[in-house]
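In practice, a research group might receive sequence data for several interacting partners and want a quick structural hypothesis before committing to experiments. The following worked case mirrors that situation: the sequences arrive first, and a predicted assembly follows.
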Amino acid sequence: MRRLWSIPARFFLEIACVLMCALPLVGAGDDSFLLRGATVHPVSSDDIPNADVLVRNGRIAGIGSHLAAPKGVRIIELKGLHVYPGMIDSATEMGLSEIGAVRETSDVSELGNLNPELRAIIAVNPASEHIPVTRANGITSVVTLPQGAMLAGQGALIHLDGWTWEDMEVEPDASMVLNFPIVESPRLRFFRQNATPYSEAKQNYEQRIRELEEFFESARRYQKARVAKEPGLAQDLKYEAMLPVLDGKVPLLIEATREKLIREAIRFADKEKVRMILGHGEEAWKVKDELKAKNIPVILGPTLELPVEEDDPYDRLFTQPAELVKAGVKIAFGSFNTSSSRNLPYQAAAAVAFGLPYADALKSVTLNPAQIWGVADKLGSIEEGKWADIMITDGDPLETRTEVKQVFIKGKSLELDNKHKQLYRKYLNRP
Amino acid sequence: MNARILVISFLTLATLPGEGPSAFAIRDARVVRVSGPTLEHSTVILRDGLIEAVGENLSVPAGAWVIEGKALTVYPGLTDALSTWGIPEAAPATPGAQGRGGAPPAPGPPATPASPPAAVARGPEDRPSNTSWLRAADLLSLSDKRIEAARSAGFTTAVTFPTHGIFAGQGAVIDLAGDRPGQMVVVSPAGEYVSLTTGRFTSFPGSLMGVIAYIRQIYLDADHYRLTRDMYQNPAGLRRPAYDRALEGVLESPRVLLPATREVEIDRMLRFAQELKHPAVLYGVHEAWRAVDQIKRFNIPVLVSLKWPERAQDANPDDKETLRVLELRAHAPKTPAALSKSGVHFAFYSDNTRPQDIRKAVKRALDAGLPADEAIRAFTLSAAEIYDVADRLGSIDKGKIANLVVTDGPIFEEHTKVKYIFVDGAKYEPIPEEPPAGSGTEKTE
Amino acid sequence: MRLHWMILCLAAGSLLAVRPIPARAASTTLIRNATVLTVTKGTITHGSVLVRDGKIAEVGENITAPADAKVIDATGDYVIPGIIDCHSHIAAESINEGSTSVSSMVGIEDVINPEDVEIYRALAGGVTTANVLHGSANAIGGKCTVMKMRWGKSAKEMIFEGAMPGIKFALGENPKRQGSGPNPFGNTASLRYPATRMGVEDVIRDAFTQARNYEAAWREYREKVARGERAVPPARDLKLEPLVEVLEGKRFVHAHCYRQDEILMLLRVADEFGFKIRTLQHVLEGYKVAKEIAEHGAGASTFSDWWAYKVEAYDAIPYNAAIMVRKGVLVSLNSDSAELDRHLNTEAAKAMKYGGLDETEALALVTINPARQLAIDKRVGSIEPGKDADLTIYDKHPLSNYAKVLTVMVDGDVYFDRDRDIAERPAREARRKELLEKEAQEQKKKPRPDKEQDSKPQDQRRPQ
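A structural hypothesis for the assembly, expressed as C-alpha cells:
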C-alpha cells in the first residue's frame, strides 16, 4: 500500500511559507504602528471584531474601530487575523537550562537547603535556543524558576527578548521559590513493601520543617533588628533576601503536590504571614475551598498529567482546572519545563475539553498570570497603557493547528525564525 | 560442642529411643485418619516408628505404653509444605566456589557478613544466583529452635528448603525429630526451590523477564546436558561434555516450586510451568481465589502461604491504598475454600509464620469457608501427595510412619490443646507456651 | 445511557474493582450519524459504521440498523480507527534487562501485566493497540509484544494474535551509558561494554555473527544426522534464536535511535547482514537522513516535538515527521509514555502545524501508518469493512485540543465508555470505604497491646 510521495506543489508552497514566516510583517525596531482590521481579543473584555490597535512607543495607545493612524505610524493590515496578548508561562527553567540531561548546561539547582539570596535572573542565558523556539508559539513572557532542596531562590519574570538579561527582565524578583518538604517514604506500590520506614521519613520531614521555621524566625528577628537600626547588626545576605518576602512585597511560590502537604504549606504561609502562591498542586482540588478562602492563586502544572493515585479517575488532572475555577480559585498554567514551554496553550485547551470555560482558559495563560505575578499594569491583556506584548494568529491560539503569524514584545516585532525552522529549511532542501 | 548439649537436652524431652518402650497404644480415642472415615472410640498402635494398627477393639500389645484416649483426638502429624525449619538461617547458602556453575547468589540475606562483592553476571551462562545442587538434607541442624516450637504446635513433618537465590536448592521431606540430622530425612531431594528475585540492574538477571528467561534457558541447558551426558556413554568421536553442577541439581529435582501470589502471576507461572515440561508446584497463591478454574485446568498443585497479606506496619497513613490491594487483603483467606471447592490439590505452608501462630492463620481460612476436614487434609495427606510421599506419610494407616498429633479437641479450634506429638513413633509433649519472642533461631542462647 | 451503566456497575458488584468486565456489545452495533474519518477511504460527514461479530461490516451514509443491532447515536461525534501507539512501555512488569549488551533472551510477553491501570488510561485516550517494547538500556534489547488494550482480559488475551514478533535495539547515549563512569549504580567495577557508538556497532555486528554461526552449527548438525552420522545437537541458545529469526525475516527490529550517524550505521549493518530494520524509533534526526531511511524501507516512529532533553535530542525538530513523510518514509508518532499515549490525536495535529501535513496525513501518523509498520494493517488502522472493529469516538474533531474520547471499542466490544467510567466511580469509592471499614473493625478485634509503635517498629516483638 505504501507509495513514494511525488513532491507536490504544496511542498514548495510550504517552503515559501516558512520563508515568509521568517520575515517579520514589519521592520524590526519600529515600536509604533497601527494594527488594522483584525479580530481583537483583549482578554480583559469582550472580543472586538474588525478592530484596530494603535501602538506607540511600545505601548498600546488605543483600541477601537477605524482608528486613525497618527502621522508617520505604519499601518499593518490584519484582515482575517486575530490579535491576542502574548502568553505567559508561569513556571519554566527558561534560560537556566539548555539540555536537560547535561549538568554543564543546567543552572537550576544550587547546593544547600536555604538559598533565598540566589537570583535566577542573573543566570538567564539570552542566547538560549529555547527562547526563539518558545516565542514562535506566541509566548512572550515566562517566569523562570530556580529549583533546589528547599528555599531555592528568586524566580524572575522575563520577556523572551533581549540582548542581555537586563533587557529581558520584567520582574527580576517575581517570587521566592520554596519547595515544600515532602515525607519521603516511597509510595506504596502494588504488593511491595515500603523501603524507607514511614516513621523515619516523617522524622526527616519534621526536621526540615523545623529548619525552615527556624530560618523564617531568624529572618524576622533580623528584620526587627534592622528596622530598629540595632547597632552592630552585621549584614546577612540570606536574611536581606527574605525581607521583601516577610514584608509581603514578594510572594512565596510554594511547590507542593499532595493534599496534606498543600494544607501544611498553607498553614506555614499563614503562620509566617507571607503571600503564598501554590505551585504544581496536583491535589489542589482537594483544598480548593481553603485556597479560595485565603485567596491563594495556583500555578498549575500540566493538565495532561497522569493521576497521582492508581484509583483516581483517569481524567483527575484534566478536570482540576475547571473545578478550581468554579470554586473561585485563580489559576495560571506553568509548563514546569523548558523545552515544552511552547505547548503551554494546549494545557489550557485540554482543560477546556473537561469543563474549563474557554474565557478562563485564555486568561490562565495571559491576564491571570499577569495579575498573580503583580504585573497586570504592564501586560496580560490588550488594554490601553499596557506594553504591546502581542501575538497575531490565524485563529484560536489554544489550538495546535493555529499558526502564530507575528509576535511583538514591547511593540518590537520579533524574529520568529529559530533553530527548528532553520534545520527544517536546511534538510527539507537536502538533495 | 554446643550441638551436643542441645542434642542431649532434646533427648531428655523426648522418650529416649532404645531405652523406652518401642510400642504405644492410644486407646478409645477419636481417630481422624484422613485417608478414610474418622473412627470413634478407636485405638492406634505404634511400634518401631510405624503405625502398626488402627481400629476399634484392638488388643493392646503387652508392654506397650498406653494412653487413655477418651476425650482425645488423634490426627496425622501436620506438615509445613514449604519450610525452612531445620535449616538455621546462619547456614551459608553458598559454598565459596565461583565460576560456571558456581556464581554467587544475588544479594539478599548475606551468607557471611564479609562476603566479597558478587561478580557481575552477563547472562544465563554465568549461572548467577544458582545453587540448585544444594540439598536441604545436607544443611539440617537440630539446633534450630523452631523444630521444637513446630512440634509443639502439632507439626511432625516439614518440607524444608534452602531459599537463597533464584535456584536456591533442593528441599527434603523431614521429620521434626531425630538424634542426628540425617535421621530426620524422609525423602531427598523433594524439589527445587525457585524464586524470581532480581539482582542489581547491572548484573544478570536484572529484571523479572530476565529471571524468567534465565530459568527457561537453564531447563533447556539441562535437557541438552542430559542428552550429551547420555550420548557420551559411548565416547568415541565425541567431545567430552563439561560437568555443570547447576544443571545436575536441576536434573536431580523431581519437581520445581515456582512463586506466584497475584492472579496475574499465577496465570503466568502456570503457563511457564507447562512450558518447562517439568512437574511444578506453585507457592504463595494468595489471589488464587480468582484463578481456581485456571489452576484446575492446568492441574498443578499449589501451596498456600499462611502469611496473609496485611497493611505494612510502618506505612504512610496518607498513602491511599489501591482497591486492588484492599480486595486482595479481604479475599486472600478465602483462597483455600475456593481451591477446596473446585478440587484443586493444595497444601499449606508457614511462610515464616511462627509455629504457635499458624493455627490463628488457619482460623481465618476456616472463617472464610474452608471446611475443617479439608484444612486437616491440606496439612496432612495433600501435602504428602504433592511431594509423592503419601505411601509413608499423611494419614493414619497401617504401615505408615508413626507421625501423629494428639489433641483434646478439634485441632483448629481456638482452645484446643496439643497433648502429645509422635514423631517416628517417639512421643513428645508440647513445650509450655512461651511469651512470643523473635521467631527463628536468632534468639538461641 | 449513564443510568444504564450505573445499574450494570451495581450488578457487577465488587468484582469490578478487581477485573472489570468489558461490556460485551451486542454482536451487532450500529454507530450512527457521526463524522467518520476512515483515514484510508475519506471522510463521511453523516456516516454510520456497522459492526458485526467484532468486525467492521459496513461503512457508509445510509445504513439501516438491523433488528438485533445496538445503536450508538453519535450525532455530532467523530469516529476514527482506534489509535495505535508504536512505542509503549505499559502493561509490562519489567522493561529493561540492562545487565548485558545483548538481552535478546528476554521478552515482554513473559511479564505482561494485564491489570496495569495504564492500559485503561490508554483506552481512555483512544488507544486500542500498542507495541510494547523492551527498554533502551542495551544495543540489542529484549523481545517486544504488540497488544490490544483488552482491559479485563488475561495476559495471553492481550496479545495481538498473529502480529509479527519484534525485538528492540538501541543506539547512542542509552546503550553506552553503562560503559562510562561514574556508573549511576555506584559500582565502577561493573562497567559494561560498550562506551561509544563504535562499540554499539561492534556489539550488534558481533551478535549477528554469532547468530549466523549458531545457524550454521544447526545446519551442520542436521546434515550430519541426514547422512546418518552420530552427532550432538548444538545447545539451544535463547539469546541467539531471536536474532536468527531477524536474519530470516521472521522478527521485526524496532531500533531506538537519535543521531543521523547511528541511524545510517544500523541501516548499513542490516544491509550487510541481509535483514531489514522495520522501524526506527524516536529517530529524532531522521529528517537528516530521510532519503537513506526511505531507500532501506525502514519505518520511522517519532515524537511530535520533544527536544533538548539530552544531547542527542538537541537537533530534534517538530518538523521531523513531516519531512520524513515528504521524503517517502512511512512515519508514525508514538508516545513512549503512559501519559502521552492518552492524546496522540493532538500530537498528530502538531504535524499539521509543523510541516503542513493535511488532516488525513496527520491522522494516519497514529492509525494506519503504525499499523503498516507493525504489519497489522490488514486488521486495524483504518475504518474499512472486514477490519477489526477497533474504533474511537470523540465528541469533537480528534485533531482539536478540545476533543475528548467518549467511547472506545476493541473487536466490537466497548472497553471504554466515559459515561460508564463516571457512573462507576461512586461504586468504587463505596467499595473502598467498605473494605477499609471492615479492616479497621478487624484490627479493633485483634488484641494489639503494642499498636502504638510509631517510632519503634521493633517493639512489636516485645513480650505481651
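Before designing any experiment, note the following. Chain B touches chain C through 54 residues (CB under 8 Å). Chain B has 13 helices and 16 strands.
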